[in-house]
Each structure stands twice: as C-alpha cells, then as structure tokens.
Amino acid sequence: AQSVTQLDSQVPVFEEAPVELRCNYSSSVSVYLFWYVQYPNQGLQLLLKYLSGSTLVESINGFEAEFNKSQTSFHLRKPSVHISDTAEYFCAVSPTSNTGKLIFGQGTTLQVKP
Amino acid sequence: EPEVTQTPSHQVTQMGQEVILRCVPISNHLYFYWYRQILGQKVEFLVSFYNNEISEKSEIFDDQFSVERPDGSNFTLKIRSTKLEDSAMYFCASSQAGRTGTEAFFGQGTRLTVV
C-alpha cells in the first residue's frame, strides 16, 4: 500500500519570498510522483511529475521538485512566489504497475501575501 | 482547450436519497476516474473505469456506489442511498491511457451535501 504525507496544511509566505512545500511518501513498490495544484473554484491541474531520469523536475511557472529516494521525499520549491501562486497544492503517488490510480496527500494551502 | 466538465457544481440531498453525479470527460480519453475529498481530509481514489467496466476500485466504493458510461460522452457516479458521511467534494478525471504517468485531467468537482 502507498501513503503520502504533506506535513504543512497551510504555508503563509510574502510575495517574492522562496517557498518549500514538503511531501513524504511511503510505498513498498516503485512509484511515480506528482504535484497537482488547485486554484480557487477550479479543478486539480498537474503541476509537475517525476517518472524516471533526472531527479529534479520543473514546471513552466517556476516550480521545481526533487525526488529523493533515500528520504522518500518529493518536496516542491519555488525561489520567488507571486500572488497568483495562491492555491492548494497536492502531492500524489501512483504505483508504476498501476492503471493510473493516484494516492494523494492532504494538501497544502499556499497563501501568498503582498 | 479541452476540459473535464462536472455537473452540478453543488448538490444538496436528503439522507437516504439517490444521487447521480455527472461528468463529461475529454472526448478522446479512454480511462475515467472518480475521487472524493471529505472536508479537511485527503483526496481519495474511488474507482477507475476502462472499456465499459471497472478496472479498479477502493474499499470506499461499496455496493451503494456504481458508475456508468451511458453514452459516448457522459460518465456518472451514482450513490443509491446517501449517508451523512458521503458529504464531500467529488472529482471526476480522465486520461488518454491508463499507464501511470499519463496526465489525468480533473474536473472542477461536485460538492455533495447530505442533510
């Protein structure tokens, strides 16, 4: 079985400050890793994913996440946040042998303040 | 840009009533999913559906739940006799292929309130 833990339910940060949203997972099998974002009144959108290869993956809007197998982590970072980054962020895993089922963490609300 | 559409956005129903949540997946997608999120808790997988049958379901997806693709465009989740604990946000998702890693596109969700 797999589980995902997002330790921070809310992360307040000032605009242009760096941010890290933490994600740890537990799994007895190989998994793929994902970050989804949910803006207010919208559905979940894929932000970035790790399938294989380089352990550092990037999104088009400046977020990056690094897969750390030894620490079973997939933390999300951004060096300088914008007001528009205010949203809920979900970390998720999916077994590599599966049909696409995602196992989500509890979510972290990123609140960017001016 | 193609998107997954869910209706209604908010549904209020009395305990014991049947409810149907509707989803229109992206047209060329083949795999369909339902997830739910109880307020303050994790987004939980309910069921995946491919080729007109359930490919995987969670322990939550008991006999009171059913899914159907009644025509070429809709994908529905039916709850036969709603309970208070069914109150949650329900998300529909679809993907082109079920191979993990293929992006799943999510709808905006239906907030179900059972009173």
Concise structural overview:
The complex is a heterodimer of chains A (114) and B (115). Chain A is an all-beta fold and 114 residues long. Chain A has strands at 2-5, 10-14, 19-21, 24-27, 31-38, 44-50, 56-58, 64-68, 73-78, 87-95, 103-104, 108-113.
Please characterize this protein's 3D structure.
The complex is a heterodimer of chains A (114) and B (115). With 114 residues, chain A is an all-beta fold. Chain A has one domain (2-113): Immunoglobulins (Immunoglobulin-like), CATH 2.60.40. Helices cover 0% and strands 54% of the residues of chain A. Chain A is built from no helices and 12 strands. Chain A has strands spanning 2-5, 10-14, 19-21, 24-27, 31-38, 44-50, 56-58, 64-68, 73-78, 87-95, 103-104, 108-113. Chain B has a single domain (5-97), classed as Immunoglobulin-like (Sandwich). Chain B has 115 residues and is mainly β. Chain B has strands at 5-7, 10-13, 19-24, 31-37, 43-50, 53-57, 65-68, 75-79, 88-95, 105-106, 110-114. In chain B, the strands form 2 sheets. In chain B, strands 2, 4, 5, 6, 9, 10 and 11 form a 7-stranded mixed beta sheet that branches. Chain B has a 4-stranded antiparallel beta sheet with strand order 1-3-8-7, with no helix packed on it. Chain B has no helices and 11 strands. At the A-B interface, strand 6, strand 10 and strand 11 of A face strand 4, strand 5, strand 9 and strand 10 of B.
From the coordinates shown, what is the CATH architecture of chain A?
A: Sandwich
Q: Tally of extended strands of chain B?
A: 11
Give the tally of β-strands of chain A: 12
How widely separated are the two ends of chain B? Answer: 36 Å
Which oligomeric form is depicted? heterodimer
Structural class estimated from helices and strands of chain B: mainly beta
The helix tally of chain A amounts to 0
Number of domains of chain B: 1
Instruction: Assign an overall shape of chain B.
Output: globular
Main beta-sheet annotation of chain A? 6 strands, mixed
- Radius of gyration of chain B using CA atoms only: 13 Å
Q: Report the top-level CATH class of chain A.
A: Mainly Beta
Overall mean confidence score, pLDDT of chain A: 93
Look at the structure and give the mean pLDDT of chain B. Answer: 92
Order of helices and strands of chain A: EEEEEEEEEEEE
Low-confidence stretches of chain A: none
End-to-end distance of chain A, in Å? 41 Å
What's the CATH superfamily of chain A, by name?
A: Immunoglobulins
Radius of gyration of chain A, CA atoms, in whole angstroms? 14 Å
